[in-house]
Amino acid sequence: MGWPIFWFWTVTLGAAIVLDALRFDPVHRGSVGAMRLLWGRWLWATQPCWDRRIEGLEHVGPGPYVIVSNHRSVIDIPCLQGLGPPTTVVARSSLFRVPLLGLFVRWSGQVDTADFDRAARAALAAGISVLVFPEGTRSSAEVGRFHTGAFRLAYETGTPILPVATDGAQGILSKGLAMPLTWTVRVNVKVMPPVPAEQDARAQARQLRDQIGAVVDGWRA
Fold first, then answer.
1. Which residues contact 207 (CB under 8 A, 6 or more apart)?
2. How do residues 123-135 score in pLDDT, each as one tens digit?
3. For the chain, N or C: smaller number of CB within 10 Å?
4. How far apart are CA 10 and CA 43, in angstroms?
5. How deeply is 201 buried, as exposed, middle or buried, from its count of CB atoms within 10 A (0-12, 13-18, 19+)?
6. Number of helices (H), then strands (E), in the chain
7. Which residues are registered as beta bridge partners of 163?
8. What share of the chain is helix, strand, coil (3-state, %, to 5)?
9. What's the CA gap between 201 and 220, in Å, rounded?
């Protein structure tokens, strides 16, 4: 039942995104709100096969934040919607060129890596948090090295960073998988207290990578 329910809410979300596109809002507030509600809440509330366990929601305020998280599965994106503030996601430029999917990510207000600085700043200025997977791709095992773009963005805009660790969704659609390995899954999410951005983006990237990696290692142990 997991995938039919996922596709039901995804098609419903697509319809909401098309309607919102008619409003010509440059930051797509309606679509971002629909993702938060449909993917971030109702998808998981109606799932008999996918279980999402979130701890640390008490650390989440109104935002906006630069949210940084490790990345194991495509399902991380709906999983990390609904943590609190409305959130847009940084997506690879290649996704914007895929038929239908490209329209979905563009009209829903996701941030193109080719236009990262401008689009991410516009979202933050509108009160919308920006979710970045600083590994740059789905990791296959250990949490990978974090790139510094998210941390520079947070420092230059004075936006706090919200670190998030997640694990478990890799059984559905992880890197290199064309088909899910399992029909049932338990996804763990831990939201850590927000931290101020530091001028040394490289050092902060290493520090938060180690912090998130330690949480993930603890779950697997």
1. none
2. 999 999 999 999 8
3. C
4. 9
5. buried
6. 9, 7
7. 68
8. 45, 15, 35
9. 28
Q: Count of CB atoms within 10 A of residue 198's CB? A: 15
CB 164 within 8 A of CB 192: yes
Q: What pLDDT is stored for residue 24 in this prediction? A: 81
pLDDT of residue 61: 92
Which two tokens mark 179? 């088909």
What's the pLDDT score for residue 198?
95
State the Cα–Cα distance between residues 79 and 82, nearest whole angstrom.
8
Segment 99-116, tens digit of pLDDT: 777 778 888 888 888 889
Number of neighbouring beta carbons within 10 Å of residue 190: 20
Token representation of residue 43: 């998808």
Which residues of the chain have a pLDDT value below 50?
none
Cα angle, residue 137 at apex, residues 135 and 140 outer, rounded to 5°: 90
What pLDDT was estimated at residue 220? 83
The domain limits of the chain are 2-220
Longest dimension (CA), the chain: 49
Residue 138: φ, ψ to 5°: -70, 130
Contact partners, residue 159, CB within 8 Å, separation at least 6: 64, 65, 66, 124, 153, 197
d(CA 109, CA 27): 6
The contacts of residue 20 (CB under 8 Å, 6+ apart) are 28, 29, 30, 31, 34, 107
